[in-house]
């Protein structure tokens, strides 16, 4: 009995039907991944790659999801920044760091973060101080503590300093 010959690379290519089935499988996995919360293109691609899906199939599935509006880095960044500001009291620096880690492009990050003016950021920082400090700083130690709170939340030193001064005057 003869052994079957190993297939040559051109014989290993998928039929169009097999390829389409693998794309459908990737889409199903991706939809399950984005079902609970908004995700970036990078996060979805990384998840599919971790699941062992080949890069050509990932590119096609993710591209289709972007085209159909299921994934949007801009939408993710806007919602993420809004939530982190409102829920956690984060400043721009911390938001930028986390958006970069999530794979959002620099252009999108700059557009989202740049939409908040100086006064808006100072107002956000004052609200954080209201929640965390409660009383106006009366000496240098309390001012430093307030600045530290804002710095850890991702506010720039300029914003934090202006917020502490405004908080003292209020």
UniProtKB/TrEMBL annotation:
Domain RecX second three-helical span(s) in chain numbering: 72-111
Record-level GO cellular component terms: cytoplasm
Provide this UniProt record's keywords sorted from A to Z: Cytoplasm
Any keyword tRNA processing? no
Q: Where in the cell is it found?
A: Cytoplasm
Origin organism is freshwater metagenome
Establish whether keyword Coiled coil is in the entry: no
Q: What is this protein called?
A: Regulatory protein RecX
Checking PANTHER family in the record gives: REGULATORY PROTEIN RECX FAMILY PROTEIN
